[in-house]
Design goal:
Helix content is 17%, strand content 23%. By secondary structure, the chain is an alpha+beta fold.
């Protein structure tokens, strides 16, 4: 009965019968009371889902018509037969069953609803539905020491024994960069400019390996930037030497807003108390009101470089980001400068927009929640039939146990969470903007879902 109940919940979620919170609209709540399935009418979906660990069906009733067996029809599990493919140690086996939970969690198999165990092409003793040897591919898995890659035609072995992801037709080649990790198994790098010192010379190189730039060269990586040296041509890439370029300094002298062309950013910001705009002029064209157009802007913002040790004011977020900086928001300022900590306006705690445990956040539903469908999605991710939602380069929302890795243990941990045996955690390197559903805003952010 417990397996059937879990199956009921998962089936309901996958069919979209569980929707976002609907306080105020009655529905049927199906929940397990000991070993008996119960049904109650309520308008509190959260109470049904999170307190009773039940499934909520908007607009449904608790009628028990067909058959009259003491269980509301809406709460009855209607089994669907299918083929269960599992490895019993001697080879791949196939059995017909209607118990998907038994197949998935007891046999560690894969359930294929409506399928049969026929062995037609070829007749090799393995049901066609369970064969994975028709195409080789690359299996990416973590053996505890790092990401590994192996060529195999056994997708189930990759997914269920190694808890890896299978990439049909892929190879384990390591070409870009040659870092010991197969290209198919690593995050696709985005090229940018790396600024680093070679002796006393400030150098710039284009690379897609941010870690190599930062950890080996002790440099600063600017995603999407180039090493062009345009203004001035001094042998140092502009992205690595932003102070070398002239710009407009906007400052208030007590009577009005003034503008001055300078290449001394510290003089502008510290001595004059103004803000500097790289490459800008002091032209006053529209309108001619005595204030330079570049200084007559209601929405500038601070742009921070080099972990906050360098700061400029930009008109637009895109200009800041393209230059390799971190945009601090409209109306933000550089603040005060400290030799040890840098600019006060650049000191922030970075958070990432995700809800811990919401493995299927790629679907983009709002508000996000943690439900049984997340278990199914995470299992499909390990089977390489569902894509991860990377935020900051990491599948944060699926790291249910907070160990900063996404492996098979997170599936088990998420199941235990639904059983009330543990709490969800998050990787401390990727602090979530919302740690629980109670932290969520009413409206979805403009960028949601922010999958990379």
């Amino acid at each position: 009965m417990k397996h059937n109940f879990l199956m009921l919940i998962l089936t309901a979620m996958l069919l979209g019968m569980i929707v976002s919170t609907a306080i105020g609209q009655n529905g049927a709540c199906c929940y397990l009371d000991g070993s008996e399935m119960q049904c109650m009418i309520t308008d509190d979906e959260d109470y049904c889902t999170w307190t009773l660990f039940g499934s909520f069906h908007t607009g449904a009733t608790c009628d028990d018509i067909d058959p009259e067996n003491g269980i509301a029809d809406i709460c009855e599990y209607v089994p669907v037969e299918g083929a269960c493919c599992y490895d019993d140690g001697s080879g791949m086996q196939c059995m017909i069953t209607d118990d998907e939970d038994y197949c998935t969690w007891t046999l560690f198999g894969s359930f294929n609803p409506g399928a049969t165990c026929e062995d037609v092409d070829p007749e090799n003793g393995i049901a066609d539905i369970c064969e994975s040897g028709s195409q080789e591919g690359a299996c990416c898995y973590d053996d505890g020491s790092g990401m590994q890659c192996m060529i195999t035609d056994d997708e189930d072995y990759c997914a269920w024994t190694l808890f890896g992801s299978f990439n049909a037709g892929a190879t384990c080649e390591d070409m870009y960069p040659e870092n010991g990790i197969a290209d198919i198994c690593e995050y696709v790098p985005v090229e940018g400019a790396c600024c680093y010192y070679e002796g006393e010379d400030l150098m710039c190189m284009i690379t897609g390996d941010e870690e190599y730039c930062q950890d080996t060269l002790n440099g600063d990586f600017h995603s999407g930037a180039t090493c062009e040296d345009i203004d001035p041509e001094n042998g140092i890439a502009d992205i690595c030497d932003p102070a070398a370029s002239n710009g407009a300094c906007c400052y208030d002298d007590g009577s009005s807003m003034q503008c001055e062309i300078t290449d001394d950013i510290m003089y502008c910001t510290e001595t004059l108390g103004g803000f500097f705009r790289l490459g800008a002029t002091c032209d006053d064209i529209d309108p001619q009101n005595g204030v330079a157009d570049i200084c007559d802007d209601e929405a500038p913002g601070a742009c921070c470089f080099y972990d906050g040790t360098f700061c400029m004011i930009f008109d637009y977020e895109n200009d800041c980001v393209y230059s390799g900086g971190t945009w601090m928001g409209v109306g933000s300022v550089c603040g005060e400068y400290d030799e040890e900590t840098g600019w006060s306006g650049c000191s922030v705690t970075t958070t990432y927009e995700y809800l811990p445990g919401d493995a299927n956040m790629a679907a983009g539903s709002w508000p996000p929640n943690v439900i049984g469908a997340d278990v199914t999605y995470l299992v499909n991710y390990f089977r390489a039939i569902a894509a991860p939602c990377l935020v900051g380069g990491f599948y944060n929302s699926a790291d249910a146990n907070g160990d900063c890795s996404v492996i098979g243990a997170d599936v088990t941990y998420l199941v235990q969470y639904f059983r009330g045996a543990n709490e969800l955690h998050f990787c401390p390197d990727y602090e979530p903007t919302w740690q629980s559903s109670g932290d969520l805003p009413a409206e979805a952010p403009d960028s949601w879902p922010n999958c990379e």
